[in-house]
Amino acid sequence: MRWVITGASGMLGHDLMERVQRGGHEVIGLDLPEIDITDAASVAAAIESADVIANVAAYTAVDAAEENENVAFMVNAVGPQILARHAKKIGARLIHISTDYVFGGEDSEPYAEDGVIAPKGAYGRTKAAGEWAVRANTDDYLIVRTAWLYGKNGKSFPATMKALSETHERLSVVTDEVGQPTWTVDLADLLVRLVEANAPSGTYHGTSSGQTNWWGFTRLIMETIGKDPAIVDETTAAAFQRPAPRPHYSVLSHKALEDIGVEPIGAWDDRWRAAKPVMFD
Ligand SMILES: NC(=O)c1ccc[n+]([C@@H]2O[C@H](COP(=O)([O-])OP(=O)(O)OC[C@H]3O[C@@H](n4cnc5c(N)ncnc54)[C@H](OP(=O)(O)O)[C@@H]3O)[C@@H](O)[C@H]2O)c1
User: Fold this and answer.
1) Is 177 within 8 Å of 236 (Cβ atoms)?
2) Which of 5, 15, 31, 265 to mutate to test the pocket of ligand 1 (most atoms within 8 A of CB)?
């Protein structure tokens, strides 16, 4: 199969390029400046043919999006519209990555794939619009929502916590944000498995199984790098004033994957133990 990956230089893009190649597929990786997904002429010139276009390009600066919603909208909504139309024109399947931020974040049961979306901030609004743009412009798509992503090739929460633990005796981490830490390598693997399984068009959730909060994740990170988890103190999100609101509850259901017989990503703590040597080698 011939894949084209847009946003190939990003955190997920790196690992997706590697996984697609390892799967024996042809792959072309594109990113700025060789493609600008907000420009239809650029997309048409850069992607002549493909079986799969995987769009992992995005405006991901959650706080900056509050002041630059128009720019974020171009990348997160107009770009997916252009890619969906182009994919339809050349007969390619479009994979598009979305986020837990499309939900309100106040539930206490895992969000269903067809749950009501209610984004609280600019980033979530623009990503929600991107989902609608994909559904409205092609019939052959996989929208995969992910959350709490970490990877070797980007700024990641585990790397930040490790660095902080080297300069601080104690860490204060929030307990009132619950989610599913997810390794880019696992998400890349899921995307390839979905395509290889010829999954029906629709919306899926690509996060680890189980749930924790940032405090619990940090304790495990400390344990696996040989530090005492007891250095991690509990705090609440109210202690960290940031421009964009964060969801308190970001746990995503994997029912749509289970319904089609595609195995969801494993438990977040097992997957962190597998990721740690790769992340910090
Ligand atoms: N990171 C998370 O925790 C998280 C959580 C939930 C969902 N997601 C979603 O997962 C996906 C991958 O995220 P990531 O963390 O891998 O993102 P990332 O590291 O920020 O990578 C995004 C890539 O897209 C490129 N890009 C930006 N604007 C573009 C344009 N107009 N045309 C072409 N390329 C463009 C960026 O280039 P520049 O660097 O030059 O701008 C960057 O290389 C995104 O859809 C994101 O919304 C991420």
Assistant:
1) no
2) 31
pLDDT in tens, 51-86: 999 999 999 999 999 999 999 999 999 999 999 999
Q: How many secondary structure helices (H) and strands (E) does the chain include?
A: 10, 12
**70 CA to middle of ligand 1, Å?**
16
pLDDT, one tens digit per residue, over 174-201 is 999 999 999 999 999 999 999 999 999 9
**Using a CB cutoff of 8 Å and minimum separation of 24, what contacts does 67-70 make?**
67/243, 68/122, 69/122, 69/125, 69/126
Give distance in angstroms: CA of 31 to centre of ligand 1.
10
141 carries an active-site annotation: no
Query: Rounded CA gap, 248 and 242, in Å?
Result: 14
Residue 278 lies in a domain: no
In a domain, 89, yes or no: yes
Which CATH number goes with the domain that contains 19? 3.40.50.720
| Total number of domains in the chain | 1
Q: Domain containing 135: what range?
A: 2-155+181-209+250-268
Does 91 map to a domain? yes
Q: Which two tokens stand for residue 90?
A: 């050349």
229: tokens are 């988890």
Q: Is the dihedral of CA 158, 160, 165, 171 positive or negative?
A: negative
Measure the CA–CA gap between 143 and 195, rounded to whole angstroms.
Answer: 12
